[in-house]
Design a protein that fits this description.
seven-stranded antiparallel beta sheet, alpha+beta, globular
Length: 715
């Protein structure tokens, strides 16, 4: 069951928002090629959520073997250092009190040295430090239960001015009982408001909350010191880097069940943070994506089966939320969503469970026209939502792209926009071959493992040279020169563009083949993970084993691929990307392996660096006076200012508006709205493509930049 990205059939992929570590779950059409693609990938291994139920066979005596395996296989970390111990302590505390509602600041000061001793002694199989940790948790859980029961007494009243800060970075641990009382009062009030809006009366909502905290106490008591050993194993794995993790035997078995292709769902990757279930990624072709209503970072706060009342899922274990969302094809469920954008919105989304619709994932081409100086230009826009492929289904995005480019040539297009702005990755081999459709021969990507072994994946051939000849080269068939698209090329990216998308965009940039247009940079996940079962039925180990490198020698790790022409963010994505994660590995570099044709010019006209500044300036001038971009920038700024803050009054106002003016949109209307949101970015990419063909600006670059600031056009 082991896997790694050095195999050609394996996958490069990514999970925007992997900052919530391995507390992740995927619901999608597992009966098709998409799930096989997801399971095989090295850069995206969809882990199931942590559970309070723990395998009995993970004992303290097992930990030395577990740690030895991780350190032996990790790309960069080979020893248990003080820094790793500190990281492990941080992760352990987060797993014990994810919403910062249980422990006091003084508890942390007392527990940190205890946990430091725990991780220092784990390699020797010493877990005695877990007993005092368990005792503190039980005491605090009982205290929270008592506080909530007192809050919800007969004199309880709703406070409509309540504000709750869900951004843990901005909210410290409480110092006093009074502070804890105030914090729990806010949490309880938000939970009760959620229940009231779902149709429960106040008495029922209060009863639900009391019961929830009673159950929380029971769960903490059942999590005895022996069961905390799994928390320690998880914390150690997470301390290595953002993408290494430990799967308990139960979670590993869940993964095996998914491999049987027996599960169907909504097509989303979820995580848990601060008691909320977060949508991290929408799988193309899944019900969640097709709804057109959901976005990454939306919070699921309630789940309702058809004709049943919504169930509040705030503070619910992610595993339990998973069970509620999974279901048979054709069945219906309704998610209650909390979105913190420029306004805090609470709304319902009804989704029909289904398998992934392959047609929805396929590459598609549309055409745009522009008229300049009496001449009409025609451009092709290719939307590639993922690097898909499956031999059984006879599907290949490379073959589909090849057909679309042939069609574009027949249409006599003047240029191509390749839209990777929502592409989170996929099959590495497909990505390498697609790059060949624009480059012809040449090295596309390399991996380097912990033994310093570098392997280049190339179309036809890689660069020659003393250093490069030491590399191992895996060759794909060389592209027929007549099949290579040689015209002007734009690649549209965003912070959601990850892994395989970064590899393709980065290779095209390194060869000066394309202009990259989009957000400041792509996601920045340039690491490779291996998932293997552990001996003695101890579960599974996912560990970072290698890094990816672009033809110019740089890694996409942490930095991603920078845009040549920057556009505003689609929506608030500041916390999306490798740099937003905890303990990311640093970027590295290897010897470049750019292929240099012998005595031959490239098939295409290289993008000149001198052109990039002018393209950026002209785009900046247009964006500055574009009303749609102005609205996007305004909304993003307002959302950033309100990040993490939930206001009860806002929720009630939104519900009031929905009841009076909001009508149910048809599927066609929903899809049109999604296209309209994407349209300004695609439109500006086409404008930049036109600029490449009409570079005769009468204004120098500095004047264009001044024009951008004043909102005047540079033409």
């Amino acid at each position: 069951m082991g896997m790694h990205d050095r195999s050609i059939g394996n996958i490069s992929g990514n999970t925007p928002g992997d900052n919530y570590r391995s507390r992740r779950a995927s619901f999608g059409g597992k009966g098709g090629f998409y799930f096989r693609r997801l399971f095989l990938m090295g850069l995206l291994i969809l882990l199931l959520p942590f559970s309070s139920s723990v395998a009995e066979n993970l004992t303290c005596s097992s930990l030395p073997l577990l740690m030895e395996r991780y350190l032996a296989n990790h790309y960069a970390i080979k020893n248990m250092t003080g820094e790793i111990e500190t990281h492990a302590v941080e992760q352990m505390i987060k797993s014990l009190d994810p919403s910062k509602t249980l422990l006091y600041a003084s508890d942390l000061e007392r527990l940190k040295p205890v946990l430091q001793d725990l991780f220092a002694g784990m390699q020797a199989g010493n877990c005695a430090s877990l007993k005092p940790v368990y005792d503190v948790l039980v005491t605090r859980a009982r205290e929270n239960e008592a506080i909530v029961k007192k809050i919800l007494g007969s004199d309880y009243r709703l406070d409509e001015t309540m504000e709750l800060n869900t951004d843990l970075k901005k909210r410290p641990y409480v110092k006093t009982t009074a502070e804890k009382d105030a914090l729990l009062r806010k949490f309880v009030q938000f939970q009760i408001e959620n229940a009231l809006l779902a149709g429960t009366d106040l008495a029922g909502a209060k009863k639900q909350q009391v019961h929830r905290y009673e159950l929380q106490t029971i769960r903490v008591i059942k999590r005895n010191p022996e069961k905390l050993i799994t928390n320690a194993a998880e914390a150690f794995a997470e301390a290595l880097d953002p993408h290494s993790s430990y799967l308990s035997p139960e979670n590993l078995e869940d993964l095996r069940i998914q491999m049987q292709l027996s599960l169907e769902g909504i097509g989303a990757v979820l995580s848990s943070d601060n008691g909320f279930t977060i949508i991290e990624e929408l799988i193309p072709g899944g019900g969640a994506e097709k709804s057109g209503l959901l976005k990454p970072k939306d919070k699921i706060i309630a789940v309702a089966q058809k004709k049943e009342r919504p169930v509040n899922v705030i503070d619910m274990d992610l595993r339990d939320v998973v069970k509620m969302i999974r279901g048979k094809k054709g069945t219906q469920l309704t998610l209650t969503i909390l979105r913190q954008a420029e306004h805090t919105n609470r709304f319902n989304v009804t989704i029909i469970r289904d398998k992934i619709d392959i047609k929805e994932q396929e590459a598609k081409i549309t055409y745009e026209k522009r008229m300049v100086n009496g001449r009409q230009y025609r451009f092709g826009v290719i939307d590639l939502p993922s690097f898909y492929g499956d031999e059984v289904e006879n599907k290949s995005c490379y073959e589909d792209m090849k057909k679309l480019l042939a069609e574009a040539r027949r249409q006599h297009v003047d240029g191509i926009v390749l839209d990777l702005s929502r592409n989170g990755g996929g099959l590495l081999g497909e990505a390498v071959r697609i790059a060949g459709l624009f480059l012809g021969k040449g090295g596309i990507v390399a991996t380097k493992d912990s033994r310093e072994q570098v392997t280049i994946l190339a179309n036809g051939s890689a660069a020659s040279g003393t250093e490069v000849n030491k590399f191992k080269v895996i060759k794909f068939p060389a592209e027929d020169p007549t099949e290579v698209y040689t015209g002007p090329l734009i690649v549209l990216t965003s912070r959601l563009s990850a892994s395989a998308s970064e590899i393709v965009a980065g290779a095209l940039k390194d060869y000066h083949r394309a202009v990259i247009v989009g957000s400041d940079h792509t996601f920045g996940k340039g690491s490779v993970q291996v998932l293997t079962p552990l001996p003695q039925d101890l579960g599974g180990m996912k560990v970072t084993s290698a890094l990816y490198f672009l033809p110019g020698g740089a890694s996409t790790q942490k930095v991603g691929v920078e845009a040549d022409v920057r556009l505003p963010l689609f929506f608030i994505l500041e916390d999306v990307g490798e740099t937003a994660l905890e303990y990311p590995l640093p970027a590295q570099a290897i010897t470049p392996f750019l292929s240099v044709p012998e005595n031959a010019a490239p098939l295409w006209k290289p993008v000149e660096r001198s052109m990039l500044a002018e393209l950026a300036a002209r785009s900046q001038a247009r964006v500055a006076k574009d009303a749609k971009f102005a609205e996007i920038i305004k909304n993003n700024k307002e959302a950033a200012n309100k990040k993490g803050i939930i206001r009860l009054a806002d929720l009630r106002e939104e519900i009031k508006k929905e009841g009076h003016v909001k009508k149910k949109e048809t599927p066609a209307e929903v899809k049109k709205k999604a296209r309209d949101q994407q349209a300004p970015f695609v439109n500006e990419s086409v404008n930049v493509l036109l600029d490449m063909l009409t570079p005769g600006s009468t204004m120098p670059v500095q004047s264009l930049l001044r024009a951008a600031k004043t909102g005047t056009d540079g033409r």
